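Researcher: Quick test of sequence recovery. Tokens follow.
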């Protein structure tokens, strides 16, 4: 498809068909929540069957997710200890080196395959761009991200640092960026800042416009330096994103082994642990849950999408005219832009290494609670992609396989509907039949049956606890030993956080979408830092 055909229609240009599919996620979610009440009136036995079946389904899914999370954690553990630069040397020479290092079976298979299918891009030709998007985050947030890139096990003279910042962030933020560029420029192949002008027509206020404006500047830079964009990998990072030291090497390795990297996005695993010791307990639970889910998704490539920090070939970004400037969920939407631009030839490859990110944390407890909801509702706005996918895939001329578009659409819909409804159904639905039919024996026994099933399912929280403790960074010296105990006791918040920050945020976004009350502004999430002097900086 042409670039002009992959754009989201402006608000005033969305016809009745597009609006219908914007309404669908919210309409289905609210219908599912109402079903137990209607069935309790029409047929109590059918209600009981529906609820028990739903609970059993989620019981099986929870077991599968725990197994996937454990598998993902083990895979990350292996990938963290690999000597990726040595593996890259093998790719470069297309032979197995003599050094005594761990070489997984899949690496040996990759080298063997190169003898038949040589790499399109050679490791020695790769240039990487680390693009950090910032609004007006403090130096204490932004500088550690730059330092984490510098700490990477990779040749810094093959990395270009770009800080994409906002004019609306003010002169103080702009000066901070200029100082950082001046201070660190000599450490990289090159480094420069790009300021995104305020109030560009037809752009939502958000990250998409910022990184797209900077991406076009990178394109001009590469043209000036005569660097082929197919040899360039661009990773977008938020101000608080700190890549694992092996991330850039692992991404370069994976990139070289792609048959054609234009058709691939590269997705590391976000772990929200940077400030996990400082964040309030409810936010720690939410952050751990998000890390848990991202680890699970990394092992399910059929549902893996661009999220937060991700990488693509510079050629791909040029071909898609970079990210959308018309949505606040530019990361996930970039998957669909690329998918349709290349007529269905697009996949996301997991990079089983973490990008460490901040949990939500503001200057006060109340502000933190609010900021967490704002972040989750923004993520849940991805439900707006359903209308785009269906109308682009089925009602515009394109060569994307219709069966694949259908299944991807259904997975997208199911994911957002489950996001909005599952916690509420699991928590409250068993009480609905007894509320409507208090004299029905089956209805009154249902809460007891479901509570027994939930009690068994609660054993899954022990693995989540294990995952939480194993992914914790070292405890800061400013905290005493009892802080570690709170990391265990915090899980009493799980039912509340799941309902408020999962179901309610998704329902909020889907309901706004139903009524055309669009989220047209990217609300930057507060990610404060506690200094060694115990001062909170944002």
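Model:
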């Amino acid at each position: 498809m042409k670039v002009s055909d992959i754009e989201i229609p402006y608000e005033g240009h969305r016809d009745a068909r597009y609006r219908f599919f914007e309404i669908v996620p919210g309409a289905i979610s609210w219908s599912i929540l109402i079903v137990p009440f209607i069935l309790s009136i029409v047929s109590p036995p059918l209600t009981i069957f529906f609820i028990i079946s739903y609970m059993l389904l989620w019981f099986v899914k929870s077991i599968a997710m725990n197994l996937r999370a454990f598998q993902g954690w083990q895979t990350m553990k292996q990938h963290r200890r690999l000597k990726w630069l040595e593996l890259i040397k093998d790719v470069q020479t297309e032979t197995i080196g003599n050094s005594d290092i761990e070489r997984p079976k899949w690496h040996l298979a990759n080298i063997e395959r190169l003898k038949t299918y040589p790499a399109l891009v050679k490791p020695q030709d790769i240039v990487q761009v680390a693009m950090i998007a910032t609004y007006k985050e403090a130096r204490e947030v932004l500088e550690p991200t730059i330092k984490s890139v510098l700490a990477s096990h990779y040749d810094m003279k093959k990395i270009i640092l770009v800080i994409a910042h906002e004019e609306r962030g003010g002169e103080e933020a702009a000066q901070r960026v200029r100082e950082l560029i001046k201070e660190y420029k000599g450490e990289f192949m090159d480094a420069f800042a790009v300021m995104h002008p305020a109030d560009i027509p037809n752009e939502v206020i958000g990250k998409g416009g910022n990184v797209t404006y900077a991406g076009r500047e990178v394109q001009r830079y590469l043209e000036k330096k005569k660097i082929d964009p197919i040899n360039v990998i661009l990773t977008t990072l938020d101000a608080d994103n700190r890549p694992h030291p092996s991330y850039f090497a692992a991404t370069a390795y994976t990139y070289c082994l792609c048959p054609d990297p234009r058709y691939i996005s590269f997705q590391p695993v976000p772990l929200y642990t940077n400030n996990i010791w400082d964040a309030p307990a409810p936010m720690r639970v939410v952050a751990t849950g998000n890390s848990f889910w991202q680890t699970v998704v990394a092992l399910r490539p059929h549902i893996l999408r661009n999220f937060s920090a991700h990488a693509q070939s510079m050629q791909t970004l040029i071909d898609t005219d970079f990210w959308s400037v018309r949505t606040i969920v530019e990361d996930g939407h970039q998957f669909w832009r690329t998918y349709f631009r290349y007529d269905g030839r697009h996949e996301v490859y997991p990079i089983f290494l973490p990008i460490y990110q901040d949990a939500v944390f503001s200057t006060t407890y109340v502000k933190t609670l609010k900021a967490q909801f704002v972040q989750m509702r923004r993520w849940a706005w991805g439900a707006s992609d359903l209308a785009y996918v269906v109308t682009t895939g089925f009602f515009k001329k394109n060569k994307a396989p219709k069966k694949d578009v259908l299944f991807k659409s259904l997975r997208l819909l199911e994911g957002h509907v489950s996001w909005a409804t599952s916690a509420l159904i699991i928590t409250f639905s068993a009480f609905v039949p007894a509320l409507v039919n208090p004299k029905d024996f089956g209805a009154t026994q249902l809460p007891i049956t479901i509570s027994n099933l939930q009690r068994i399912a609660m054993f899954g929280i022990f693995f989540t606890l294990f995952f939480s403790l194993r992914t914790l960074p070292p405890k800061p010296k400013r905290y005493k030993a009892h802080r570690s105990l709170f990391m265990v006791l915090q899980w009493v918040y799980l039912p509340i956080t799941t309902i408020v920050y999962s179901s309610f945020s998704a329902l909020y976004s889907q309901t706004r979408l139903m009524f055309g009350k669009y989220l047209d502004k990217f609300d930057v999430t507060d990610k404060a830092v506690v200094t060694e002097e115990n001062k909170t900086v944002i």
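Residues 139 and 176 are 7 Å apart (CA to CA).
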